[in-house]
């Protein structure tokens, strides 16, 4: 459980690579001056750990420490290029199921943007799903010309992050919560996420819930950012939209990020290691400091969080800045001087957006000593049956030639329904103007909708493999009356 004794609360800290140690030292110096009652256990993660031969970028001791303490405060970390290793940042988020990535984007007075100059206030919280989507990184090249990525959107995964977003919006006193999506095109994946959104929305009638297609959302965010409060999105769309929002409030130097899970949470800045300015003591620590402030609130350290945030906001209002922002007429401060200025301004309140200094509150105790992996499975509501199969085959032949060969394999259980290429139907109808690549999807369905079993499908697979390289196959399932597969464009 989180230790609710404020004297001894301990968290794991990883300073990171590049500018990481500089901005982490500055942030911890501010924490120390504000008498933040935390102890730190420094853990080994990042590029130098990869370089020592640890393929996931962290030592086993670091993993155990983080799992024991439940909180990781981290600086940015570099993923070595061209070594085939995966990002330690993404590994950490996924391994510990920090399913909700919360990023707050607020107008900061003293940080000039087109919106601040126009007097348009911004206070947007993006909640991005943090585990699934194409970030599973499950990719294959079935032919020399074709690269495929699997996009996982799951009901339990979507419900976890959406419930978090609604609960957070309610606590924050938000009026509106919006789901950004592309369900008009990705009807099953984004469709499932959107369905979960409205399912959860029913439990929060006091919040205005709506949805916006993600491209329209981007346009609206740059024309009317003040119209949005909390926005929840799938992983990749959330990644892109949150950087757009960072741009609205002054750039990545001001974008904090909290990766929230049921057991372990990670707090970090959105920006990377900034290798171009590393080691010069000129980096802007604001994003990491804001992430740290969010962490203090997460731990119930409301008083220290407010004192530090008020001082930061006051300092920005006074025109105190690092080299990456602010007026050219005032000398920019280096990282250490910027931290010292914030410490000197403790106790001062900003003119805009002063935070009330609340008493510290014990955090809700959370069990995080697990002895088995949590299994998230929804109750099956509908009868499930197999009604066909999509066979993805490699071929550079014309569609009608492929159709003739495939029909010979259909046997007594299957009908050849259609053939598509990159999702566009090319047989039995299609256009000669559709360009083709060397992977086709050949769709077989059962005759008269009769349910099939896996042996039927394997029989077809074996037969078809005599003529084609089968790259992969997907069962066509019916859940009740609902087709659990998409139709080809033009089908
Ligand atoms: P970056 O965010 O490091 O840098 C982009 C630009 O912003 C650079 O010009 C940099 O100088 C500037 N910048 C970033 N943070 C700043 C700060 N605090 N103060 C002043 N200027 C700042 O992005 P990148 O160059 O694409 O990535 C560099 C490395 O960081 C890569 O190895 C990448 O994998 C890694 N990365 C890590 C994380 C993370 O740890 N969460 C996130 C993004 C990128």
Give a quick set of tags describing it:
22% strand; 14 helices; alpha/beta; single chain; ten-stranded mixed sheet; binds nicotinamide-adenine-dinucleotide; 491 residues; six-stranded antiparallel sheet
- Give the fraction of residues assigned to helices: 25-40%
Terminal CA distance: 54 Å
> Which hetero ligands occur in this complex?
nicotinamide-adenine-dinucleotide
Mean pLDDT: 92
Describe the structure.
- The chain is α/β, with parallel strands linked by helices and 491 residues long.
- The chain is 32% helix and 22% strand.
- The chain has helices spanning 20-33, 47-51, 60-69, 88-95, 114-117, 155-172, 189-201, 214-223, 235-248, 286-298, 302-317, 335-344, 399-409, 454-465; strands at residues 10-14, 39-42, 71-74, 100-106, 123-129, 139-143, 146-149, 176-181, 208-213, 230-233, 256-260, 265-269, 384-394, 414-421, 424-427, 439-446, 469-479, 482-483.
- α6 (155-172) packs across α7, α10 (286-298) packs antiparallel against α11 and α11 (302-317) packs across α12.
- The protein is elongated and about 80 Å long.
- The protein starts with 9 loop residues before the first strand and ends in an 8-residue tail after the last strand.
- Bound molecules: nicotinamide-adenine-dinucleotide (NAD).
- Nicotinamide-adenine-dinucleotide (NAD) binds at residues 19, 23, 76-79, 89, 252-253, 268, 271-277, 283-284, 287, 324.
């Amino acid at each position: 459980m989180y230790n609710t004794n404020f004297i001894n609360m301990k968290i794991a800290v990883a300073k990171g690579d590049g500018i990481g140690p500089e901005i982490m030292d500055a942030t911890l110096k501010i924490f120390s001056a504000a008498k933040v009652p935390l102890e730190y256990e420094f853990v080994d993660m990042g590029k130098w750990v990869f370089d020592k031969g640890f393929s996931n970028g962290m030592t086993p001791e670091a993993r155990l420490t983080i799992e024991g303490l439940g909180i990781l405060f981290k600086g940015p970390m570099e993923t070595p290029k061209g070594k085939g290793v995966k990002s330690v940042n993404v590994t950490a988020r996924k391994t510990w199921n920090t399913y909700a990535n919360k990023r707050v984007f607020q107008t900061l007075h003293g940080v000039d943007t087109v919106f601040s100059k126009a007097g348009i206030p911004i206070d947007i919280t993006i909640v991005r799903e943090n585990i699934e989507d194409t970030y599973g990184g499950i990719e294959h090249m079935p032919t020399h010309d074709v690269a495929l990525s699997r996009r996982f959107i799951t009901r339990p995964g979507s419900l976890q992050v959406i419930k978090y977003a609604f609960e957070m919006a309610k606590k924050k006193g938000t009026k509106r919560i919006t789901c950004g999506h592309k369900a008009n095109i990705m009807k099953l994946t984004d469709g499932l996420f959107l369905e979960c959104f409205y399912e959860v929305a029913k439990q929060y009638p006091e919040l205005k819930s709506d949805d916006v297609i993600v491209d329209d959302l981007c346009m609206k965010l740059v024309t009317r950012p003040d119209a949005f409060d909390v926005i929840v999105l799938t992983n990749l769309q959330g990644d892109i939209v949150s950087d757009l929002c960072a741009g609205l409030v002054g750039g990545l130097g001001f974008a904090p990020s909290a990766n929230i899970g049921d057991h372990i949470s990670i707090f970090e800045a959105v920006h990377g290691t900034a290798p171009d300015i590393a080691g010069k003591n000129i980096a802007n620590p604001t994003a990491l400091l804001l992430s740290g402030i969010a962490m203090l609130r997460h731990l119930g350290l409301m008083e220290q969080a407010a004192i530090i945030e008020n001082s930061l906001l006051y300092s920005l209002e006074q025109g105190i800045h690092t080299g990456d922002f602010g007026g050219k007429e005032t000398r920019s401060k280096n990282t250490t001087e910027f931290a010292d200025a914030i410490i000197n301004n403790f106790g001062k309140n900003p003119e805009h957006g002063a935070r009330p200094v609340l008493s510290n509150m014990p955090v809700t105790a959370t069990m995080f000593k697990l002895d088995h992996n949590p299994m998230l499975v929804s109750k099956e509501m509908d009868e499930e049956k197999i009604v066909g199969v999509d066979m993805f085959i490699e071929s550079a032949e014309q569609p009608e030639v492929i159709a003739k060969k495939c029909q010979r394999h259909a046997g007594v259980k299957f009908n050849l329904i259609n053939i598509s290429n990159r999702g566009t139907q090319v047989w039995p109808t299609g256009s000669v103007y559709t360009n083709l690549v060397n992977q086709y999807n050949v769709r077989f369905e059962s005759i008269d909708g009769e349910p099939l079993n896996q042996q039927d499908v394997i029989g077809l697979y074996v037969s078809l493999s005599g003529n084609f390289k089968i790259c992969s196959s997907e069962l066509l399932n019916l859940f009740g009356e609902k087709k659990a597969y998409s139709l080809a464009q033009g089908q």
